[in-house]
Each structure stands twice: as structure tokens, then as C-alpha cells.
Write a structure and sequence with these properties.
Largest sheet: 5 strands, antiparallel
Number of domains: 2
Helix content: 10-25%
Order of helices and strands: HHEEEEEEEEHEEEEEEH
Number of strands: 14
Length: about 280
């Protein structure tokens, strides 16, 4: 046996008792999850509030038809570290890095997450929509979070605690007010002259006033439009469509993630197909 062969034999023998390597797909997925977590924390530290959605397709956004009312959050009477109405916990199948989720209509807390305070349904949604505000610690990071489950799927916004707010309940109140009670920030408004324009501070990145969404979206002659818009003081962009019926502006949102990596025309085509199928974005 040559020197090289003996050396190779020694190397092989030294690794004989080691466990097999994880499949490369598993290691890549774990790396991607860690990268998403680092990006989320960095965004929270940079701008105070971040938003996460659990869907990646252009579907419905909450309507502006009055199914969500104004809610004033109140600080729970419990001491820190307790939850007067503890949500359910579950261990099976957490496939992402979300600290909470909804499963079969029940809010679940990821194992290891500590809930300090919980406010039920801050958006005043009607079933089957759900919302919950939580002050929690996840992997050593304290965060304030509002989660919701709508026809879009699961999503949440979160903030670094005390980033300009006196208390958790004050932060929740501000988020509910800014969202108009429906979970989405204001983007467009109707002027006295009947024109649809962005609200103060919002930035319209792309827009059309002829989205061609068909008669299931709005009757002929109605004021309609579509845009990719960034709300005031936000790092997120939203694809929105709107219609004015009987003098009332109805803005329909899709989750912010739907505008990532898709062109404006692709977003429009997806919306057109939804309305052609009679499903729509709501």
C-alpha cells in the first residue's frame, strides 16, 4: 500500500463514527430562515415598525365597508410575565420564523415565546377574521406585535418596544388608528372634485386610471384605478385597486409582499384574472 493510500485510509477511519451530513436542502432552508430573521430585526431597529405577511399571492384585502370598528386598547391588569387570556400553544410543524400564527381559527404561540401582555382583537374584526396584539419575547428579543388572519392569510406588524411610545397599549392604539381600523395604512383619498389622490406623505410609484378590471369590479363609467403605493412613513409598498361607487371611495389592498418581485403589469393581470373569474380581490 502506498503512502497516499495509507493516508486516505487514516482519513476515512477518522470520520467513520461521525453522523451523516444534513441534506443540503435542509441546510439552505435553515440559512434562509436565519437570514430572514436577521433582516426582520434589522428593519425593526431601523424604522421602529416592520410588517410581515404569510401570503405571497395577489388576493383580497380587508374592505372599507364597516366590518372593522374603532378600538381603544387597554393595558391588562396582570403583572409582567403573565397573560390574563393566554392563547393556545402548539408544537407541530412550525415551518417559518413567525413567533405566532393562527391554526384552525386559534391563535398559537410558538414554543419558547414568552407573552407578557395580550389584547384581544384590536382591529375589532368580525369572524372569521381575527386579530391579536401581544407584547412578547422571542429568541431573546422583546417585541410588540399585532397579528391578524383575514382573507389574505396570516400577517403581522411589529415594533421595538418603547420606540417613541409610552406604553404597549399606546402603540396598539396608534397602529389601529393609522390603519383606519382595518389593518392596512391609508394610501389614497377622494377629493371634493371627485379625483383619487394619495394621502399626505404617501408615494405613488406606479399608477393607472384604466385598470380594465371588468364589470364585476365596477360599473361602466365609475372612477377606478390601480397603483403601487408606499404609505406615509413606511418602508413597505402595496398594490391597491380602487373604485368610487355612489360618491364613496373603496380601496382594496393586497399584502405588501405581493409587490415584491412582480411588475406592475403582472399585478394588474393577476387582479384582472381574479375579477374575470368572479372571485375578485376581496
Amino acid at each position: 500500500m502506498s503512502v497516499a493510500e495509507r493516508l486516505q485510509e487514516e482519513i476515512d477511519r477518522s470520520f467513520a463514527g461521525e453522523p451523516p451530513l444534513r441534506p443540503v436542502e435542509d441546510r439552505l432552508a435553515a440559512g434562509h430562515r436565519a437570514l430572514r430573521r436577521r433582516r426582520g430585526v434589522a428593519a425593526a431597529l431601523a424604522c421602529g415598525v416592520v410588517a410581515v405577511t404569510g401570503t405571497a399571492y395577489a388576493v383580497s384585502g380587508p374592505g372599507s365597508t364597516g366590518d372593522a370598528g374603532q378600538h381603544t386598547a387597554t393595558e391588562p391588569s396582570s403583572t409582567p410575565g403573565t397573560d390574563p387570556t393566554p392563547p393556545a400553544t402548539s408544537t407541530p410543524g412550525w415551518e417559518d420564523d413567525n413567533p405566532v400564527r393562527y391554526r384552525d381559527g386559534v391563535l398559537e404561540i410558538r414554543p419558547g415565546v414568552v407573552v407578557h401582555h395580550h389584547i384581544d382583537n384590536p382591529y375589532d374584526y368580525r369572524p372569521p377574521r381575527q386579530s391579536d396584539a401581544l407584547d412578547l419575547t422571542y429568541e431573546g428579543q422583546r417585541m410588540w406585535l399585532i397579528a391578524d388572519q383575514t382573507t389574505n392569510g396570516f400577517g403581522y406588524i411589529s415594533s421595538v418596544p418603547s420606540a417613541g411610545w409610552a406604553s404597549f397599549s399606546a402603540w396598539v392604539d396608534d397602529q389601529v388608528t393609522a390603519a383606519g381600523g382595518d389593518g392596512y395604512p391609508a394610501t389614497m383619498r377622494l377629493t371634493a372634485a371627485g379625483r383619487v389622490v394619495p394621502v399626505a406623505g404617501a408615494e405613488v410609484l406606479q399608477r393607472t386610471d384604466e385598470p380594465d378590471l371588468g364589470p364585476t369590479f365596477a360599473p361602466a363609467g365609475a372612477t377606478v384605478g390601480a397603483a403601487v403605493v408606499r404609505p406615509p412613513d413606511s418602508v413597505l409598498t402595496y398594490f391597491v385597486v380602487w373604485r368610487v361607487i355612489d360618491g364613496r371611495l373603496d380601496v382594496i389592498y393586497t399584502p405588501p409582499r405581493t409587490s415584491d418581485g412582480a411588475t406592475f403589469e403582472e399585478l394588474l393581470n393577476a387582479a384582472r384574472q381574479k375579477y374575470a373569474d368572479g372571485v375578485g380581490l376581496r
